[in-house]
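Need tokens for this chain, all 717 residues.
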Amino acid sequence: MFQQTSDMHDKDEVVIDGLTQKELQATKEFLEEIGLHYSDPDNEPLSWATAVKFLMARKFDVRRAVELFMSHEAVRKGENIHTIDPRDPAVRRELLTEKFTVLPGRDSNGAAIAVFTARHHCITTSTHQVVLKSLIFQLDVALNSQETQRNGLVLIYDMTNSKYSNFDYDLSIKILSMLKGSYPARLKKVLIVTAPLWFKAPFKILRLFVREKLRDRVYTVNINQLSQHLPVSSLPKSFGGKVEVNHKDWIRKCLQVVWEKSSDMDNEIMAYMEDCDNISTPDTGSGLTTPTMDDGSVLSSDLESESSHGTIQEKYSREYKEKELGLSLETSDDAVMTSSPNSPSSLNHLVVVGSNIPLKRSSEPSQMQAQGGDVNPPLPRKKRPNTATTAPTEESIHMPESGGYTVEELLQYCKIKQKKGLCREYTLIRTEPPAGTFEQAKVKANTNKNRYTDVLCMDHSRVHLNTRDSDPHSDYINANFVDGYKQRNAYISTQGPLPRTFGDFWRMVWEQMVLLVVMTTRTVERGRLKCGQYWPPELEDREEYDNFTIINNGVTDFVDYKLTSLILQNNMTGESRKINHLQFLSWPDYGVPHSADAFLRFMHHVRRVQEERTQACSPPWIGHPNGPPILIHCSAGIGRTGTFITVDICTRRLADIGTVNIQKTVRRLRTQRAFSIQMPDQYVFCYLAVLEHAQNVGLIENIDLANFEDSSSDSEC
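Here are the structure tokens for all 717 residues:
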């Protein structure tokens, strides 16, 4: 059991079963954390070996390993992969096609080498579910090796002789998303071999789905260049190497491990492998192979010219330099990731038949105990009407309820959790998959209406515009109805308008009877365009978009924000309305405000203006006493927008019943506007803003958070 230390450990450190004392302690902490929050009485406890796999993948950082475990559980449910049975005929066929295999050799650093052969994939005959089952089944066996656990995985994506009909963009995203942050293996390098010219465009997008540091490890190479990355002694002969690869031998080994057979010549394994020669790669249809460049690769210089508004994950990676925390989300989340934790589509949970990774079998993801000691998942989503004039009796998802924290309890909670603990709490929320679909946002006619490719609009809560010119897609805008405290459809959360959507934006304002537009960003920050100039900024200026004319009727400057009075004219009907526009200008270029004072003054001014405009309505407003929806946006419509809505809801609840539940509020908010609260520091800011508000209104005298920052806190905060 005891052995001498290898070079990777300290000179005199004792190693037990390949683990140092620190690693053993980390494994115990990981199992305690999983057992405390994520255990399921219907399943066996997580095994020690499985815990080590997740910790190895994150260099025995317990927090990051727990995040990986949560993501591993959360991201697979979407593909409905609950079990992997190699006896299943579809899985057996997929396993034996040689589409995906693990080579017997390793790279110079000891990483395992896996190969995905694109020409063996046919979109019309292979489902994502079956392909993923085959891939995960083989990776689980490869990961039984502690050498692979420590040294990671190199993925070769072989596009030799492949056609466009072989390339499955969605499947590629799912595989990359899983390997980058939802599977316990260190993805060291991706080598794309002999990429055709047509692959350049999708590759630009695919690169956005890998971590920033891994992005520099994605290479497009020809066969001759492979030896610069991998030893010739580990490469197959088809790649100019010396290895005679026998995929059947590898599958026999996998079956031997999973079925716990003493020999790969066991009768059951031999029967499984019978007639495998008759299992051929499906016909991919006719079509010419698109030529590659002269050297068979894609010019790297062409791959670096990314749009500044490609994805929200790219934006935050660039602006905040923070580590991604997993899928959804999004997501994804994300999303969505998920996809990234902020991407809309995602993989999810899995149990492998015969595997030593026992995972949750229930159909619902586990949730950490909510604030106040009650376990309460987000309420079911509700279909939103096409009008904002909801009756006062229609219930919001944010209603008075038991549980939650008083102000004093909230302060103590923050002292105990500290900033690091709140960031971790947010991470658990962020890994949860989206509570809806994004079908309309992904329709080809609507994709260019989305500012970011991974911040989409959930179908069940989206704002429907009135259709025009018999165009069924003219009803789409990237905006969602969001409930407030005791008010259904209190807000419309939307992205910063694009020039092509200015007309749709003002059409939404008109149709939903919006009186107040709240903007929490500047149009340009750090030289980057965050939002189009969709309103005339100077007094008496006017702009015309589609059938609407917008006139600037006055500007009032405050220390931290600006109030603009606008006249919105409907050129089709001749009607006009007064619209107020409040723009917050004191959000810092990086992170969040150090104090919530200016933000809270802005929030209360928003409430006053909404109340004044509602009372001045002619004819009188007959809906909820708080008026029609307040339209709120930032750039993506989820970060600062979600922060504003969360603080507004929580402070209203505090005034009404004396308690708040920030964690539950954010979870419920994300069921209506996916991925709301985009960063951990925004989530922490919500806690501090509520406490500062409580102090301002006399609910607490002193807020002492001297050790809140905690110098050992992780960098994502």
